[in-house]
Amino acid sequence: MTKDVRVRFAPSPTGPLHIGGVRTALFNYLFAKKHNGTFILRIEDTDQNRYVEGAEKYIIDALNWCGIPFDEGVDKNEKFGPYRQSERKHLYKQYAEELIAKGKAYYAFDTAEALDAHRKDHEEKGKTFIYNWHNRLKLSNSLSLNAEEVKAKLDAGEDYVIRFKSPQDETLHLKDIIRGDIKIDTNILDDKVLFKSDGMPTYHLANIVDDHLMEISHVIRGEEWLPSLALHYQLYEAFGWEAPEFAHLPLILKPTGKGKLSKRDGDKLGFPVFPLKWTDPKTNEVSRGYKEDGYFAESVVNFLAFLGWNPGTEQEIFSLDALIEAFDLERVNKAGARFDPDKIKWFNHHYMQEQFNEDLAEAFKAQRWELADIDVNYIAMVIDLVKERATFVSDFWDLSHYFFTAPTEYDAKASKKAFKDGTKDILTQVASIIEANEDFTAEALQNEIKGWITSNEIGFGQVMMPLRLALVGALQGPDVFDIIYMIGKEETIKRIQNVIATL
């Protein structure tokens, strides 16, 4: 690429960052790093009515947890600051007025009541009201009024908005990296509001001005902004600025594949749609987060990368560095990407196996009061034996509780299967072998007990099933001899005696 790559993620602080927003941030980050560029965070808070306390911090915390921190933005390397649009509002009016001076925009004085009346009139006639070339001269604006009338209204302090003057009978030829060439008939476009009566710009004006002033080279954003592309291209042209390249990412769809993924889908099907837990400051409603639900950040990032992008190979496991190396906007799909809650669990299971046992042990210990007095090194050894079957740290207790506390009851179906005539005598002899064994290692115990089974021509199942039941309380768990070694000789014999007495 000939120009420096500068991309921005520009969320609104109206609540927690949706997982779709994280995907947009991730693709911007991957593209920037692939091309040695800059990833920028800009907070688009022009709509102060929807501003939510704590949302901006949540966005930054979420990006940091995912391992995709911004290079430049709010309170960080403020090369083109400020990076909150509310702190830049003094900039926008002059650009709106520049468009008026160029004949590309105009003042509109229509009241909300007048516009509502026009809409109702159109609806009664089976039409849709659009404010543009076909009716703008019949409405109250600086195109239909003479200069004196306009000045009088402005001098009187009447409320107004500034609208873009969309052209008539033109065909726009737009380019999108993902979607290719797009043709738009300007006759179907409405004259969008650029500047509101409250003195704040709309998203359309503010984001174009900011992208230009911050020297954004590529705008990578969600598909929902595709209908705005025509206006944004025209604004660049109206200002005489070079437009950035655009890429509109596909929607993230519900698990059914129909419709856009929402928080309601997560609530209904039992999975988070936010990266971190969120507590609504107004209602105190708590929404689940991937971090608190036990997902690793690497799992979330790897999963999100595949929502709409594929590397063109069978490879699915990518570190962040590998994603940067492989990422290409040309390989992003146009079609929506189905969100699969089971697939992200699959990724989490994989990344579970890559974690250090010591780190997992600390996390596991913090979750269970039963482990408060247990040596973390012992817990790490237990985790090494069971983590192959775990997807979350919270799975460890069900998989390993018998390493920490003796079973108090025995699975009924397993008991019926394991205990037969003669089982009591077999277990009594096994306990004697374990008691007498001086080389107390898993390997030595295995050799001795298996040798005894073979020499006495006993079926392996006749010994191993009731032995496992005695140790675990069910017919599950890792190698029996690993369990015996871990819990120790005294505890093993006590559990064998207990199962004999009970069953």
From TrEMBL:
ATP binds at residue 263. It is found in: Cytoplasm. One of its GO terms (molecular function) is zinc ion binding. Residues 5-346 form the Glutamyl/glutaminyl-tRNA synthetase class Ib catalytic domain. It catalyses: tRNA(Glu) + L-glutamate + ATP = L-glutamyl-tRNA(Glu) + AMP + diphosphate. CDD domains: GluRS_core. Gene3D superfamilies: 1.10.10.350, HUPs. NCBIfam families: gltX_bact. This is Glutamate--tRNA ligase. It comes from Aestuariibaculum marinum.
